[in-house]
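Reopening this one. Same input as before:
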Amino acid sequence: MPPAMCRLPFVVTIHDLIHLHYGTLLHRTYYNKIISPFLGGADRILTVSEYSRSEILAWSGLPSERVVSIHNGVSTEFALDGDVFQPGFPYVLYVGNRKKHKNLERLIQGFGKARLDSEIRLAISGVENQKLVELATKSGISSQLVFLGRIEEKALPSIYRGALAACFVSLYEGFGLPPLEAMACGTPVLTSNVTSLPEVVGDAALMVEPHDVEAIADGLKRLVEDFFLRDELRRKGLERAKRFNWDKTAELTWQVLQQAAKS
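Same output, byte for byte:
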């Protein structure tokens, strides 16, 4: 939240403008009538991707040099070596919340249409949700949907490592950490070809149109059944994830803060 009045130079971070796309009227009013005018006093606005930067510039009307994109990093705990989660069945993994833009409904429908081996589960972080259970039943995969419950941060890398693939077919992301976390753990990724996600994953993930259930189904089937594709994405993903680290993020952020302090 930028201050209404401040005599000192200040820097504010806006991760994304998701509330303008998927928020309520109150969210949109708050951003347009309060946050946007106050941004005029900021020396710099930080954001986490070039996609978010372009949205913020178009929305705010600020000069391009005032908005700076600095990518997020991946914690060192997310690595190829370490414990591997072994639940007793192969699984495709989704990590994230249940908000509308996460597109879980289409992921479940796509999993049903992919007609994967009946032993393969779709494992979703968080507690059981009746709406998703009903959708899984309707999609013919009620026996294949598994809820992993609340996952402790220290356990998450092992769960990524144990997955056949990680799926993140979100409709909107300002950055999107789960695909990178999965890549850093050596897990191939299926993700969306929209918003910031292509910028983050590069050519190291299989990308699909997230509104297209058939495309999601085809992507899942390819990723699970094509060993050579999984191996290629695993290799590319490990290299891609190395580009994103918190030390680099901190260094670039510090440079912006120093520049603001001198202004």
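So the earlier flakiness isn't reproducible anymore. For the record, The mean pLDDT is 95.
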